[in-house]
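Box 3.1 A note on notation
Throughout this textbook, protein chains are presented in two layers. The first layer is the amino acid sequence; the second is a token string describing backbone geometry. Keep the layers aligned when reading.
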Amino acid sequence: MITVFEKIDKTGLKERFVREIQRKIFSGELLPGEQLPPERELAAQMGLSRSLVNVGILDLESKGFVRIEPRHGTFVLDYRKHPTPQTLAALMNYDPTKLDYPLFQSLMDTRRLVERECVRLSVARDRPDEYDGMRAALDNMRASDRDTAVDALFEFHYLLTQSSGNVVFPMIFKGFEPALRRLMVLHLQQQPLHEDYFLLHERLLSALEAQDAGSAEDLIMRILNTGISVLERPYKQA
């Protein structure tokens, strides 16, 4: 398979070059072990200087996306097996609608794991005062304006992670904010939020306030699986 590298705009050249290569890797267009074209050829195809391509390749190497073999070339690295701290940062800021399906599934599995554990920890803490913000977000979730609904949906789940009392879980959730917001927008584009979805959130909040761990865990999984089933449609239709 021949991968075509299009010319890119001159604004933020190195960053755009790096993001384009990352896009091809995350989407599966470039596979582990595949060799990139020589820097001179990449520069010509993408309308860039060779020196800029060289700097971009070095950046990709530091992020765990490629391996440079002197006198042999640059090869796509399996970032799943050889990640760096920058690899996760790149994923956090990447458009999740363009991920290959296995990576999308992994991202969704991570969200299930984090929010289910946050529900369990939240119930154990018994801090009902911390649910006031979630109640306000729930009220705003019914807004007809899409941006307001997305803000409220993100805020509800972010506050849920904070209510766990765990310091790291909210950091993880917040770190994925760009990706999660894009997914929430896609969800609303494919299927507007309906009353049953709002009721699931209301019931979750009530279960948290009642310290009903079993019901709360069941409800958070139903909420997440409902949204994920909508987001999986493009993959299953392909």
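The CA atoms of residues 158 and 170 lie 7 Å apart. The first strand starts at residue 66 and ends at 69.
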